[in-house]
Amino acid sequence: MDQERYSRQLILKGFGIAAQEKLGNARVLVIGAGGLGCPILQYLAAAGVGKIGMVDDDIVSLSNLHRQILFDTSDVGKPKVQVAAQKLRTMNPDILIQEHRLRLNQHHIFDLLESYDLIIDGTDNFESRYLINDACALLQKPLVFAAVSGFEGQLAIFNVEDKDGVATNYRDLFPIPPKNGEVLNCAENGILGVLPGIIGTMAVAETIKLITGTGKPLINKLLHYNLLNQSQYELNISPAGNYDLPNSKADFLMINYDQTCATASVFEEIDVAQMQRLQTQEAALVIDVREKHEFPILDKEVYLQVPMSEFDAFLQNNIEAQNIVLLCQHGIRSVAAAELLQEKYGNTKKIYSLKGGISKWRNHFLKK
Amino acid sequence: MKLEIISFGKISEFITGQEIEVSEIDNTDQLQQYLETSFPQLLGMKYKLAVNQNIIQANQQLTENDQVAIMPPFSGG
């Protein structure tokens, strides 16, 4: 090890040669070489992390340059990982830089993760984030999560046990991926260039703390950062226990991550005004899935009664209507029914569930 | 009961940080229903509630002066 290169952190109280050796032995994979990925890669390399992998299939474009500070104007049109690797090798020739010029998918993610001890997610879309989360959770790989939106950022560490032996992952926060278009990305929403710089360097700080055992990393915490008023807000994450993670590689391969976000839009949760519009304008079939003893009793001319206990049998029939609205007391069973119908009809019908159910829209259902 | 509401990301564009005075709300399920009725924009969104900085995983009793945070997911990078 070149002690002169790292001398300023070697003399830090509580750091020293032991911590530097841990960094030198660490293998870190950075997924996404964009606004977050650039500062992450630069500081990991500068700090002397022994092996750094980077995954990205994109090329540099002019609109990247205000925040992706590894790239120059002359790099426009070149593959990001190739440019980044070249610059990092020049910056620190003592470490190993591995390029993975590919778009991450579930077929090669396990092979990729295998050669690394810690993963940093700096991607820019929910498909990748859920794919990375589930694979890391399955392998119990420490995952540093960094994300930005507008003037705000989020940071967390997943799959690392706290002192009570509890570990959490992204699905403990957000069990179901948002639908396509529900949350805007940087291209749609805009981003101040320095924000991913701040969140990216914070992600490296957490990574260095984890590897070297320094300080208190954000284990089971979500840190929210707001650039506009320079404020931070920390949330404690606990296990949710209300979602299914794939528990084997075979299970994992069965999930369609490309479409987990897309197919979610096949059935939609709606309010009572949208339901009325569908009834009057789209001749929607409205199905009440409550059991027969439940109150209030709805007009059977308007609401077809198919209790959940009879729903499987009902699915054997063919439904003519193109638009189907499901409702129940609280909007929970109707979601389950919507999922069953979606399984049967896929994209061929429009399926809706009344969010909050009859109890939420009591005034509508009880009016004469 | 007086509650402090803090929201983040896109949600802070329609629910600004505020103290609210609510009656007949004792728990987080009721609060969620109240919020979704008052701010229908929430209906189509994913978000997580936290009470006094602890993420809520199941319905929980609320008490006077609790601080409730509404956090959406971010994906940008």
UniProtKB/TrEMBL annotation, chain A:
The keyword Coiled coil does not apply. It holds the Pfam family ThiF. It comes from the Bacteria. GO terms for molecular function: ATP binding; molybdopterin-synthase adenylyltransferase activity; thiosulfate-cyanide sulfurtransferase activity; ubiquitin-like modifier activating enzyme activity. It is an enzyme of class 2 (transferase). Residues 280-366 form the Rhodanese domain. The keyword Nucleotide-binding applies. Keywords: ATP-binding, Nucleotide-binding, Transferase. PROSITE patterns: RHODANESE_3. One of its GO terms (cellular component) is cytoplasm. It catalyses: [molybdopterin-synthase sulfur-carrier protein]-C-terminal Gly-Gly + ATP + H(+) = [molybdopterin-synthase sulfur-carrier protein]-C-terminal Gly-Gly-AMP + diphosphate. Its EC number is 2.7.7.80. PANTHER family: ADENYLYLTRANSFERASE AND SULFURTRANSFERASE MOCS3 (PTHR10953:SF102), UBIQUITIN-ACTIVATING ENZYME E1 (PTHR10953). Homodimer. Forms a stable heterotetrameric complex of 2 MoeB and 2 MoaD during adenylation of MoaD. Catalyzes the adenylation by ATP of the carboxyl group of the C-terminal glycine of sulfur carrier protein MoaD. Belongs to the HesA/MoeB/ThiF family. This is Molybdopterin-synthase adenylyltransferase. It comes from Pedobacter petrophilus.
Automatic annotation (TrEMBL), chain B:
Pfam families: ThiS (PF02597). InterPro entries: Beta-grasp_dom_sf (IPR012675), Mopterin_synth/thiamin_S_b (IPR016155), ThiS/MoaD-like (IPR003749). It comes from the Bacteria. This is Molybdopterin synthase sulfur carrier subunit.
